[in-house]
Structure formats: structure tokens, C-alpha cells
Amino acid sequence: MEIRQCKYTEDFTYPDEEVHCHLYKTDFPDMHTHDYWEFFMIANGSVTHRTEKKTEKLTRGDLFLIRPFDKHCFRKPYDDGYEELNVMVTDALFRRIASTVHPDLYDMIVSLDEPLKMKVGEPERKQFLDDLHIIQTLKDKEHGAMRAIIVFMYLDVLKAVFLRSIHSEKSYPQWLNEFIAKVQLTENICLPVEELYKLTHFSHSHLTKLFKEHMGCTLKQFLTEARMNYAAGLLQTTDLLVLDVAMKLGYSSLSHFNRAFKESFGVTPSEYRTGIREKTPAGRGTQK
User: Fold this and answer.
1) Buried b (16+ CB within 10 A) or exposed e, 72-85
2) Strand order in the sheet with 28-34
3) For the residues of 260-274, what is the DSSP string, one character each?
4) Measuring CA to CA, which of 62, 160, 162, 218 is 20 to 30 A from 100?
5) d(C-alpha 97, C-alpha 103), whole Å
6) Cα(231)–Cα(19) distance, rounded to whole angstroms?
7) Model pTM above 0.85
């Protein structure tokens, strides 16, 4: 099969700016690769996406980060409302953006077996489309502003990639890496352990069984540790009262929260905060 080679000098409206973006409403059935990076997001509708290793149906909110050497194509949108956002940058610019997040991030992404895939929520999907709208309203000569907005869009994607990589273990299946990353999110870390199965395609009993097999601890133990680490971060970086921290984490009993925190850190939340404050240069105080 012949592979089409796409080049940024031909595909970018302003090649010197090293960036380009486009909203497509049709498929791209030819298997192709590029000499640039792109992330695409299914803005609306659904489509069949094919890479060297798999063919799958993508739906609204699915986002892929495609590397210069990845081969892929889009075939047969499932409805007339299909829209796909493509945001492209040169390899040189992507390398610079990635290095601002972490010096090893570029090499980490390049070394993966497959292109990176993630699911963005409705606020993130809308934000990317709002960014596109801003670009569309720029005057023709405001190329620098377009470049800056696209760099910010890539930073949003790479932030998500990096945060997910913190909790990733190559020996874990992808669903587990994604589940662990989701549990860490503010909106999920306070959920009852019985509700976490809704973040996966498994039943509660099946999830707890698989989690214990892979992680060596129960889901409840993992969630408690994640909550206590989050609580410690709040005590370090905010002036929230300990009671407010407990309530933010879903604890209705302050004594229960204090006991769980002490089991994790060996001190009460107030003692922990006092220890942090004593190590901090004089400035605005923190509350107990």
C-alpha cells in the first residue's frame, strides 16, 4: 500500500510560523504520515480511524497525538454532523514546547508503541473550539497571535499527557493507567469507592478484583492514600481550615479525617501544617 507523505511546507498556510489548524468535515481515506506533529480531536459526530495496529470508531471528545512517523487515516464518518479539529506544529517547535513541560517528555512520547489517545471532557472540547474561533477571527497579519494560541493548545494536551505519565506503569494495562489518572482528578477523588467503577467499563465487583490483582492493594486503600496525599497538598498550598479540607475530600467527620491522615503521615493535619509552616520563610501565615 502506498503511503502518502504530508509536508508542513505544503500543508501549512504560513509555514514560517511552524503552526496550522483546520476543522474538517470530511474523511481522509488515504493512509498517510507527516513531517510534522498533529493532534486531532473529534469535535462532533464519529468516524473510523485506522493506524498500523488497529481500526476503531472514534466519537466526540476522542483526541489523538500523532507523531511524524505515525501512519493513519480517517474513513466513513457515521453522520453528517462529523467535525474533526486538526492542530499541527513542526517537529522543531513541538520539541521546544515539550521541553518546557519536562526535559524527557519528547523522548517519552516518541518511544511509545502507539500514538497517544485520550478522552477530553466537555469543557476541554469546548475550549479547543473556542481557541479555534479566536484564531478564525484574527486579522490576516496576526500570525504571531495564531502561533501563540496553538502553542497554548499544545501545552494543554502535553499537560494531560505528562500528568497521566506520572501514574503510568508500562506493566499495567492501558485501562488501568487511565483509571488511576482519572481517580486523581479533583472531581473524582472525593467519590465513594463504590462509585468509581463508573469511570471504567467494568462492574464494581470486577473492577475491585482486577485492581487488587494488578496493584497489590484494594481500591479503597488506594483511594484513601490518594485522598491523604491530596489533603497534604491542600494543607501545604492553601489556607483552608482543616475542617474545610476534610469536607472538600468528602469526610463528614473531622475525627475520621484526622485519624486517616495520622495513619498515613504519623501526625495530625494541624501538626503537619505546623511543620510545613516552620520550614517556610516568614510571610503570609496559614490557618489551622
Assistant:
1) bbbeebeeeebbbb
2) 4-6, 28-34, 72-75, 46-51, 55-59
3) HHHHHHSS-HHHHHH
4) 62
5) 10
6) 40
7) no
